[in-house]
């Protein structure tokens, strides 16, 4: 049940061997996502009855100071990473096996569109829920930084490349520093009794 | 990095470099702790730092022995990079120590795998956050890029 513009870019891109102008594709994707986002608003403030998987904008619930700033952020970045990886793989195959261009170019184009959709989706998503008080907002950032530090640290432990591991561990340490800085900031703000 | 005889495995070379760094850190914390008499909060930080680096030194000594090598000994004395005549200079020295440890452990992360890399990741994080207590600024890539 994708609206017109989405169907248009899909059919249009399959026939095309060369990549279409990025600006046009981005505009079309933006339009399609925008339409779906608008369709999610019923006008009376109630949630959309049938959200489209992967393209929902959702309706902002009452702000909960304890929520992660964007609950889908990790999912989106993982999806983007995987799409970019398979796109790079297809492009590498195409460089070496040019005869496969007619068959593989459309596939590459599909993945470029996937990336555009994911990027645009990030762009049109409702802004993350930000708590009303500054101290709660800073505590939310602190939790996000702590989680980021743990994730980068875990990745550093398993990376095959030593140099990559060094950078990931350093990023983990940087986020750990941010946790300390944000803790000090939260303590210095008024209303610092907000839960940590 | 400490240079070790070529007969040692790469892991032992890395461990001995860690140990040499921790020997120096323990020495420096011993010196700077004596320059912070008038600042109880700083004394506490210095005590925690001293104990942390002493524990790491002992950890690494055990790791070197487990690897079948003889742990490098501490130097009799170390040339300090800054004079340490007052509390301000003591804080500067402590920042320097943690900065050097960040670089050291970032190197270990790149050179090691498995448990040793995990150990180095934790030590890098510890050094980077401990430096903040001594007045260092948070940076983008602790132990990799100079602020």
Biggest interface, chains and residue tallies? A-B, 21 and 27 residues
CATH homology-level superfamily of chain B: Ferritin, core subunit, four-helix bundle
Oligomerization category of the chains in this entry: heterodimer
- Tally the helices of chain B: what do you get? 4
Distance between the first and last residues' Cα of chain B: 22 Å
Helix content of chain A: 55-70%
Shape field of chain A: elongated
Might you state the CATH topology name of chain B?
Answer: Ferritin
Structural features, described:
The complex is a heterodimer of chains A (196) and B (147). Chain A is mainly alpha-helical. Chain A has helices spanning 4-15, 22-39, 73-96, 101-124, 134-158, 162-188. Residues 1-67 of chain A have low confidence and may be disordered. In chain B, 65% of the residues lie in helices and 0% in strands. Chain B is built from 4 helices and no strands. In chain B, helix 1 runs antiparallel to helix 3 (87-111) and helix 3 packs antiparallel against helix 4. In chain B, 44% of the residues are buried. Residues 1-6 of chain B have low confidence and may be disordered. Chains A and B meet through helix 5 and helix 6 of A and helix 3 and helix 4 of B.
Which descriptors would you attach to this protein?
heterodimer; A: 196 residues; mainly alpha; 2 domains; 6 helices; 66% helix; elongated; disordered N terminus; B: 147 residues; Ferritin; 4 helices; globular
What order do the helices and strands come in, and which of them pair?
The complex is a heterodimer of chains A (196) and B (147).
Chain A: H1 4-15, H2 22-39, H3 73-96, H4 101-124, H5 134-158, H6 162-188
Helix pairs in contact in A: 1-2, 1-4, 2-4, 3-4, 5-6
Chain B: H1 10-33, H2 40-66, H3 87-111, H4 114-133
């Amino acid at each position: 049940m994708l609206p017109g513009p989405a169907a248009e870019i899909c059919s249009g891109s399959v026939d095309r061997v060369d990549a279409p102008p990025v600006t046009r594709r981005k505009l079309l994707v933006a339009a399609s996502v925008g339409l779906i986002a608008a369709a999610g608003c019923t006008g009376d403030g109630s949630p959309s009855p049938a959200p489209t998987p992967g393209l929902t904008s959702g309706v902002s619930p009452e702000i909960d100071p304890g929520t992660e700033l964007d609950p889908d952020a990790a999912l989106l970045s993982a999806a983007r990473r995987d799409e970019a990886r398979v796109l790079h793989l297809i492009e590498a195959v195409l460089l070496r096996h040019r005869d496969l261009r007619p068959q593989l170019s459309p596939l590459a184009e599909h993945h470029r569109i996937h990336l555009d959709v994911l990027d645009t989706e990030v762009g049109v998503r409702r802004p993350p829920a930000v708590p009303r008080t500054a101290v709660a907002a800073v505590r939310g950032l602190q939790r996000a930084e702590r989680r980021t530090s743990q994730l980068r640290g875990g990745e550093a432990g398993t990376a095959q490349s030593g140099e990559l591991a060094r950078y990931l561990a350093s990023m983990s340490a940087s986020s750990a520093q941010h946790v300390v800085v944000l803790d000090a900031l939260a303590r210095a703000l008024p209303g610092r009794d907000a839960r940590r | 990095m400490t240079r070790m005889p070529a007969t040692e495995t790469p892991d032992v070379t890395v461990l001995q470099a860690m140990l040499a760094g921790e020997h120096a850190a323990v020495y420096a914390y011993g010196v700077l702790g004596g320059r912070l008499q008038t600042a109880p909060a700083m004394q506490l930080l210095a005590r925690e730092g001293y104990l942390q680096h002493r524990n790491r030194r002992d950890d690494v000594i055990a790791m070197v022995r487990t690897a079948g090598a003889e742990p490098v000994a501490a130097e009799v004395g170390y040339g300090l990079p800054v004079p340490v005549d007052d509390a301000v200079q003591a804080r500067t020295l402590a920042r320097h120590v943690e900065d050097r440890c960040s670089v050291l452990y970032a190197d270990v992360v790149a050179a090691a795998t498995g448990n040793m890399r995990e150990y180095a990741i934790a030590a890098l994080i510890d050094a980077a956050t401990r430096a903040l207590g001594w007045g260092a600024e948070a940076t983008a890539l602790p132990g990799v890029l100079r602020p």
